[in-house]
Amino acid sequence: MSKPTIIYTLTDEAPFLATQAFLPIIRTFTAPAGIDVTTSDISVAARILGQFPESLTEAQRVPDNLAELGKLTLLPDTNIIKLPNISASVHQLISAIKELQARGYKIPDYPEDPKTDEEKAIRARYSKCLGSAVNPVLREGNSDRRAPKAVKEYARKNPHSMGKWSMASRTHVAHMKHGDFYHGEKSMTLDKARDVKMELVGKSGKTTVLKPKVSLLAGEIIDSMYMSKKALLAFYEEQMEDARETGVMFSLHVKATMMKVSHPIVFGHAVRVFYKEAFEKHGKLFDELGVNVNNGMVDLYTKIESLPSTKKEEIIRDLHACHEHRPELAMVDSAKGITNLHAPNDVIVDASMPAMIRIGGKMWGADGKPKDTKAVIPESTFARIYQEIINFCKTNGNFDPVTMGTVPNVGLMAQQAEEYGSHDKTFEVTEDGVANIVDLATGEVLLSQNVEAGDIWRMCQVKDAPIRDWVKLAVTRARNSGMPALFWLDPYRPHEAEMIKKVQTYLKDHDTQGLDIQIMSQVRAMRYTLERVIRGLDTISVTGNILRDYLTDLFPIMELGTSAKMLSIVPLMAGGGMYETGAGGSAPKHVKQLVEENHLRWDSLGEFLALAVSLEDLGLKTKNAQAKILAKTLDTATGKLLDNNKNPSPKTGQLDNRGSQFYLAMYWAQELAAQTDDKALQAKFAPLADALTRDEQKIVDELKAVQGQPADIGGYYLVDAEKCEAVMRPSATLNAALKSVAA
Ligand SMILES: NC(=O)C1=CN([C@@H]2O[C@H](COP(=O)(O)OP(=O)(O)OC[C@H]3O[C@@H](n4cnc5c(N)ncnc54)[C@H](OP(=O)(O)O)[C@@H]3O)[C@@H](O)[C@H]2O)C=CC1
Ligand SMILES: O=C(O)CCC(=O)C(=O)O
Ligand SMILES: [Mg+2]
């Protein structure tokens, strides 16, 4: 049998930096138990390089690690710790390409407007690195995200700040009432396995095959839905005018990363409506320049750089003039004048709405002041839950982290479930007509929609096996936690009506006696859950893929101040385990602070929690008793870290990520030295415990001494390994102590 192995992913930005300090600690502890910790580089830089082996020298080549890792998720012994990674926008991708080129990697430019076959092929390869390209490949299981008891207790004892909600708040959610995906959705459960195609029968009589073949399994649910361009534009116009008249800010919240085809289009329309007059006047020139505001205003500003300065200034004047009869825009960075319409990935709905709700329903205005906002989430399907929680906060005031209950989530996610797996089946309709999903063998039209040019049409799918697995996971979690489990499913939505039938059937496969399991439509489920939350009662939310994403930021941000402290397990359907770290992203702002002030505020608690469950699973599966002891002692050490408040501080000069990791190592070593179940581990770690305890102050001082001045990590997307190691491991005393264990 091969050596027990944990695969640790190398990703981007703050989590990648934290890994540089944490991996040497992990290996120090796991090596004596015979556990290998290997790495898999799935950063956006590595994924780009992996696409172009022929452009690179032998030494520069990077294997397609993501594809390899994807295959491993299908094996029963796989154990992966997955850190958050960048889901890149076009602009991030272009920056990464430029950085790699400047570092001597001769990869091609990104063809923004591909014409030749060669350019189209390059673009297709780059597209594999765009948006949420990693998570859907690795998520071969459903999602179990929760706040561990120790973390919840820590938050109760050390409540984070919460902004005040007032009845007078004018913040609200605006969503479409018709013409959106929710409105005309059609759904069916497949009676048998079928191969289907997606086609558009145009009014002109021309039939275009948009997707030649999708192989569907028996029992799979498929949906066909579209968003009307006309309705969307009218909605934006109406909402912008309403925000202007009533004097609230306008903010747009989408998920252009995971909805990487539809949401950039939805975003682009908002930009064009907002700056309508400027687009009317300069539209032709913008087309000539290849301006594509689906990538945000940043694209326009970048492309007009090439114009003579008088023309450029005229355009900028005309853009500014548009603001005069439009509402104030919420800002991403008011100091730099970066608005909500600057880039589609700057404001990502799962994190942006909770951040707004946490601070009392405010976003930042151009003057740097918090203000009420109209939060525009065009698609109504899930937007309504946010209005419900806003109503609740207006009525009941802000949540109290000291007393509020907890809301863990069991999320349907496996095998690219539902909307989040739909981007390869999403199309911008080119001509009025009928959009059909057709059985390839029989020619039978399974689902049909009348669409118009510019509409966004998509097909979503969810396989039967993941649904069964999700129901089972919900029952298991309800049983193990003793909490009620609530399926958030809306019987009026065709897709969810199909889901309800399956849930009701598969629940019968399990012993549910004594469990409280209910099915409720989303808005009622939100209300029901919140009524319990403020009474200190816990409720598991069992949801589809989008609500999994939304709720696993929303509730943790209210309860814990951040979703970084969540335990996030993906029991892989093939038997292995993937342990995601936290439920949030890669915190780009944190890199900026490190580079400017050598302080990394990233909290690695998610990594600590993930490592403990990963070790526990490994211990059980490989019958490695030492792995189990490592898991148990790590959990206790993490609890101690929380009790003693050794989390990273956001403020430069105070304990940061590196200091927090040092404390984890010290407590872990102390726990191993104190246990008596395994004498060999005890003997191995007692000297480390002694050394770290003795030198605690010295190490903390060494870690603090480097702060307050810039740090050079040699790159952004591709950091310099040596420079990064020097920055992330600045304590010679700690490094020597860790090294002595291996000696
Ligand atoms: N699993 C994954 O791979 C995920 C990847 N992403 C990707 O991450 C990037 C950034 O996304 P964004 O929506 O800004 O969300 P983030 O979660 O990265 O950032 C939102 C804020 O949350 C706080 N935060 C998040 N994680 C931590 C942590 N470990 N420690 C301390 N604070 C934390 C930070 O607040 P503050 O700065 O105030 O401390 C941060 O600014 C995008 O490229 C996105 O696609 C997003 C979600 C999941
Ligand atoms: O893959 C991504 O882009 C983000 C994933 C995410 O936000 C989540 O799973 O919570
Ligand atoms: Mg999320």
Q: What labels describe this entry?
A:
single chain; 743 residues; alpha/beta; 3 domains; 10-stranded mixed β-sheet; 4-stranded mixed β-sheet; 24 strands; globular; binds NADPH dihydro-nicotinamide-adenine-dinucleotide phosphate; binds 2-oxoglutaric acid; binds magnesium ion
Q: How would you explain this protein's 3D organization?
A:
By secondary structure, the protein is of the alpha/beta class. It folds into 3 domains: about 5-140 and about 570-740, no CATH class; about 170-180 and about 230-380, no CATH class; about 185-225 and about 415-460, no CATH class. Helix content is about 45%, strand content about 15%. It has 26 helices and 24 strands. The strands form 5 sheets. Strands 2-1-3-24-23-4-15-22-20-21 form a 10-stranded mixed sheet, with helices on both faces. Strands 5, 10, 13 and 14 form a 4-stranded mixed sheet that branches. Strands 6-9-19-16 form a 4-stranded antiparallel sheet. Helix 8 packs across helix 9 (about 260-275) and helix 20 packs antiparallel against helix 21 (about 625-645). The longest helix is centred in the last third of the chain and has 19 residues, at about 625-645. The chain is globular. The two termini are about 25 Å apart. NADPH dihydro-nicotinamide-adenine-dinucleotide phosphate (NDP) binds near residues 351 and 601. 2-oxoglutaric acid (AKG) binds near residues 257, 350, 549 and 552.
